[in-house]
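Narrative of activities, Objective 1.

The group set out to show that a structural description can be obtained from nothing but a protein's sequence at a throughput compatible with the screening campaign. Below is one input-output pair from the validation batch, recorded exactly as produced.
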Amino acid sequence: MRAETPEEFEELAAEDPIMSTARNALEELSSDPVALRLAQERETAVLIHQHLINSSIRQGKAEGKIEGKAEGKAEGKAEGKAEGLQSAVHRLCRIFGIDIDAARMAELAGLDEQGLTALLDTLETERSWPKSEVR
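Output recorded for this entry:
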């Protein structure tokens, strides 16, 4: 039961009393300027709501990209600094003849920037690997 043209709608209304009642109600609502205004306002509100949702999604994606890039840069800088400090530790150990075995490699890999800096300071002043874990 689907009417796409006014003629089909009339046929349905003639065949079924419920459809006739529905047609009458629709015609009455369609001729009421207040009802038309309310329907248009409701449709406009739905469109505005959809626009706001889509706009918020686009804005959220854009902000996420910006934050992701900033976080990526910060992480990259930190990793680069840590790699540079680790390289400096390896150079000092080579210069001072300090062996870096597996345990020391594991310790070195677990150190943050502060720990690596402390280890470098110890290597420079003591010219040997620290007796206890540096952190």
